[in-house]
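If it is no trouble, might I ask you for a protein's amino acid sequence along with its backbone structure tokens?
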Amino acid sequence: MEKKYKVFYQGSLYGHFGRDRAGKEIEINKSFLWGGESWLVPSVYVCGKGLVADILKSVSVEDFRAFAEKFGLDENSDCDGFSDEQQAEIEAENPLNSDIFASIQFGGRKSDMEFSSSDCWNPLFPDSGDAAEALLDRYGLDKSFCWLAVRMSIPWRGRKPKKSDSLTLQLRAEKIPVPGAHFEANRPGDKTEFINPVTGKKHTLTVTAVEQQKFSKLRHIGEKEPPLCTIMNYDISPEIPRDEISVNDRSKPEKPRGIIAPCGKAASAIGIIGGADGPTVIVTSSASGRTACSSLYYEPEYEPDWCMVFYNKPKEDIEIELI
């Protein structure tokens, strides 16, 4: 006897990690185009804590092969062989990219996705994508295509809806980073003209201040961490919204020398992300204009490799009426 297929709110494509009961399936079989791509919602599952939705995108083998050949990718490719800019470009053009966010609306109430999981089935590389393949078998979908499979858990807000309530799924594509121009910032007044690769418009970045600072006395920094950082203030004309561009230091970060001392809490506007095996990023804000901070370093002669990063929304938000 075939084992009954079960989906849980506290679960994923890879298994169940809670103690909740399995949800009740509602077959949807809703196909739609989103940004010129073919999507499908085969079923949703009504659970005690919320709704679970399976959302899939189909991609032709020919389209994925063209993408893989453009970047020289195969089933053994990993990030180590590509620069940060190349990785960003690959992510932006990957037809099986899974960076989406969902909300549901029912009975006049809206609820945002709490968590999700995803997997890809690719007949060109059939040794991977076991979770996605199992989902394709479950719904009887054509495995001669490439598929992105996403399972989303969205909590109820208030009471669980009645069967007669309408249900609308809202999907949003997250912004994708697009590498831009590298430039130098040696002194206030330095200008860099650049083209926004997302809009094609011409802009000018003007350095308003650049300063080397030493952070060795801050408790955020371990005793063996690189103590120096370059902070640059700048303006952009014509203005670009702050959530559509950032400036980062692309130089290879220096690793801490020796053991890092434990970090404590401190009342500071600076937050440090990273560790001994990766880059350290400093995030701060300027009272006027914009601010960028380099990686931490040891030697005063260090020169940051400033690089612009733009953020592109690949497709507009969409609403799909499921029930």
In short: The mean pLDDT is 84. The longest helix spans residues 61-71.
